[in-house]
């Protein structure tokens, strides 16, 4: 496994396993499979409704807690200082954990300043090893980082070959915040697994398209959390530490950037309004 070091000195695996859209009934089995394959970073969220399954898999794994890196996220309707403290306790109860490795504000809407100050409190108490955010664009990230005592350790944003986020990556590295990619496979959009350029590169290494896309992220020092409920695909996604893309390959992949999401536009005010209404 390769690691990054966060701005507070905590080490985080570069490759993890995500459970977005994993049915709660399937989560324990899927996470158990991922842990058997070798994943140690597990990423969930309160809004996913599957924290209990993640916690059950952790308890059944027999893996020492200090060898795991567990992330969950605070949803918009729980923003605010007191709400955040309650939501954190509820997540910890569902996960069955004594401490959390990384807690993220899931979206930059509502009273996320109150949420951040509650997270700072939990961090100082040692209940969370690192705190960060998800889907914060540069302006909001700069505001939060510059106006609070604790700087976010991580910003988890959509990053894939269609939407490469070079300016976001550069700004995060400038101010010492670790980029993490959600939707590293763009949720399969634009027939991503049949992209001729990526197929050609994959063939030269005897690898798959998915493995090339993940390796491309890791070589940018971006943490990735691919999701699959199939153990053989989990293994495939994990087998990316025995090759390295050339600078020529990296530049070729850069030509695929469209500069926009194939999932949804987080800068669209109507998207923001809809997220704010979700319960």
Summed over residues and divided by their number, the pLDDT gives a mean of 96
- Which percent range fits the helix content? 40-55%
Low-confidence stretches: none
Secondary structure class reads: alpha/beta
Distance between the termini: 37 Å
> Main β-sheet: number of strands, strand sense, barrel status?
8 strands, parallel
Order of helices and strands: EEEHEHEHEHEHEHEHHEHHH
Total count of helical runs of at least 4 residues: 11
Tertiary shape: globular
Radius of gyration: 18 Å
Strand order of the largest sheet: 3-4-5-6-7-8-9-10
Strand fraction: 15-25%
Count of distinct strands: 10
What does this structure look like?
It is a single chain. This protein is of the alpha/beta class and 279 residues long. It contains eleven helices and ten strands. The strands form two sheets. The chain has an eight-stranded parallel β-sheet. It has a two-stranded antiparallel sheet with strand order 1-2. β5, α3 and β6 form a beta-alpha-beta unit. The chain is globular, with a radius of gyration of 18 Å. The N and C termini lie far apart (37 Å). The mean pLDDT is 96.
